[in-house]
C-alpha cells in the first residue's frame, strides 16, 4: 500500500478512516493488524481485497494496482456467512462455480479442501448442523477454493471459545506452512497476532495510520511461555494504548515511516 488514504461519505459527513498508509507484505508472509476499534483495520483489508477503492494512494498486488476483487485474494469474514440451504461441500464448491471449474475437478478440489480443514466427514451436513468452529473451517475452505495467493482474514476466530480458537489457529498455521500463502489477519487479540505472525502492524488514530510494524522474532512453534513471547504481547499492548515506553522490545520495534 503506497500512501493510501480512505474517506467514507456517510449521512453524518465525511469519515476519514485511513491516512497515508504505507505497508509492504512479502509474498508468503503472515502479517497481522491490531489496534483500537475504529482505527481502520477492516478498511485496510477491504482495500487489499478490492472491495473498497482508496480515496488517494495505490494498493498493489504483485506490482499491479488493485481494481476490484479477484481470485488471487481470498477473504474470510468474522461471520463466515454460509448459504444455509447448501451443504458444506456445496458451500465450498460455490467459490468454484463462479470460476466455472470443470465439475470433476471441482469435486476433487472440494474433497481435498474439506479434508485439509478436517471436515471430510461433514461434506453433506448443512451449516446449522455444525459448531461455530466448524463453520469457520468451511469459511476458510471456501476462501481457499480458488487457490488464492493471498488470504485475508477479518477477526475470523473472534466469537469462538478459547480451546476451539487455539485449534483453529494451529490449523491456520498448518495451512500457511503447507500452501505457502500470504496471510493478512485482522485481530483484536494481541496474543493471537504474536502467536501467528511474522510481523504485527499497529493501526491506530483517527484517521487511522500504521504506527509501527513489529517484526516478531520468536522461534516457531510458538507457545505462550516461549522466550520473548510475553514481552512482545506486553509491548504491543502498550503501543496500542499509545503509551510509548522506551523499555524492552519497544526499542527494537521496526519503526517504518508512514
Ligand atoms: N461504509 C462505511 N461508511 C462510513 N464510515 C465507515 C464505513 N466503514 C467504516 N467506516 C468508518 O471508518 C472508520 C474505520 O472503520 P474500520 O471498520 O475500518 O475500523 P476497525 O479498526 O476495523 O474497527 P473494529 O476493530 O471495531 O472492527 C470508523 O470510523 C468507521 O465508522
TrEMBL record:
Q: Which GO terms describe its molecular function?
A: ATP binding; ATP hydrolysis activity
Q: Name one Pfam family in it.
A: ABC_tran
Q: ABC transporter domain location, by residue?
A: 1-230
| Keywords carried by this UniProt record | ATP-binding, Nucleotide-binding, Transport
Identify the SUPFAM superfamilies for this entry: P-loop containing nucleoside triphosphate hydrolases
Report the InterPro entries cross-referenced here.
Answer: AAA+_ATPase, ABC_transporter-like_ATP-bd, ABC_transporter-like_CS, ABC_transporter_ATP-bind, P-loop_NTPase
Q: Which Gene3D superfamilies match?
A: P-loop containing nucleotide triphosphate hydrolases
Fetch the SMART domains from UniProt: AAA
Question: What is this protein's name?
Answer: Putative sulfonate ABC transporter ATP-binding protein
Its taxonomic path starts at: Archaea, Methanobacteriati, Methanobacteriota, Stenosarchaea group, Halobacteria
Question: What gene makes this protein?
Answer: ssuB
Amino acid at each position: 500500500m503506497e500512501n493510501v488514504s480512505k474517506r467514507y461519505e456517510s449521512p453524518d459527513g465525511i469519515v476519514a478512516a485511513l491516512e497515508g498508509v504505507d505497508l509492504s507484505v512479502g509474498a508468503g508472509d503472515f502479517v497481522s493488524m491490531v489496534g483500537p476499534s475504529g482505527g481502520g483495520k477492516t478498511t485496510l483489508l477491504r482495500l487489499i481485497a478490492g472491495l473498497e477503492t482508496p480515496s488517494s494512494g495505490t494498493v498493489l498486488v504483485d506490482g499491479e494496482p488493485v481494481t476490484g476483487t479477484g481470485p488471487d485474494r481470498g477473504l474470510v469474514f468474522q461471520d463466515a456467512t454460509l448459504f444455509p440451504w447448501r451443504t458444506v461441500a456445496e458451500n465450498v464448491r460455490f467459490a468454484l462455480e463462479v470460476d466455472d471449474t470443470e465439475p470433476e475437478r471441482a469435486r476433487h478440489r472440494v474433497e481435498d479442501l474439506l479434508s485439509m480443514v478436517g471436515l471430510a466427514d461433514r461434506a453433506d451436513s448443512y451449516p446449522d448442523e455444525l459448531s461455530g468452529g466448524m463453520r469457520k473451517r468451511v469459511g476458510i475452505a471456501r476462501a481457499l477454493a480458488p487457490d488464492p495467493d493471498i488470504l485475508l482474514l477479518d477477526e475470523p476466530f473472534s466469537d469462538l471459545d478459547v480451546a476451539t480458537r487455539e485449534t483453529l489457529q494451529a490449523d491456520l498455521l498448518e495451512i500457511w506452512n503447507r500452501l505457502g500463502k500470504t496471510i493478512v489477519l485482522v485481530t483484536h487479540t494481541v496474543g493471537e497476532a504474536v502467536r501467528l505472525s511474522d510481523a504485527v502492524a499497529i493501526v491506530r488514530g483517527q484517521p487511522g495510520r500504521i504506527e509501527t510494524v513489529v517484526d516478531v522474532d520468536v522461534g516457531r512453534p510458538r507457545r505462550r511461555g516461549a522466550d520473548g513471547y510475553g514481552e512482545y504481547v506486553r509491548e504491543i499492548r502498550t503501543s496500542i494504548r499509545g503509551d510509548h515506553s522506551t523499555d524492552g522490545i519497544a526499542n527494537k520495534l521496526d519503526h517504518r515511516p508512514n
